[in-house]
Amino acid sequence: MTIAGGSNSPASQRFAVRSSLPAIAAIFAAVGYWNISPERFLDKPVAKIDETAIDYYATNAHSVQYLPDGRLQYEMTSDKVEHLKATEVTLLTNPDLNMFRGTEFPWHVQSEHGEVNPDGTQVELIDSVRITRFDEKNRKTLITTTRMTVFPQQQYAQTEQPVRIDGAGGVSTGKGMKAYLKESRIHLLSNVRGQYEAR
To answer: What count of other Cβ atoms lies within 10 Å of the Cβ of residue 124?
Structure first.
């Protein structure tokens, strides 16, 4: 080490080292303060997750699903599809679903809104729900309600809401319904009323 204007004796070197120790300590303290500030040891608030944050969306979406034998299972369109990042739920605007079940007479399912669970096995239809089907004799069955849960792979639908069924020469109403779409069986659960045309 060289000290300008002084001698190189051991005593002067000790003095130079001792006098530079506070400066070195001050530099380490400053660096330490910036790297290890007291705030780093305080509990940080947990970042809130925005449950409504959308990580991707599509407009005029169209989806087709086939059965293992290659026949059409369902075809769906939606004005808008939005995927919620936090819950993995998919929101649908004006979903329109044709459930073919491998036949040529599909169940036509429509609503104003829909929510699809993360693995796609359950669709919650919300507001102005309509399920329509024409059979081989062109007879129409129309089911209307305000909310319904559809399980496309199981070809099953259910609701706890009031339901109206138009078809088979009359009208049936009730509260709650289970619909086995593959077998075309519909069960109203309570408060069942029927009005049929006399022939």
So the answer is: 17
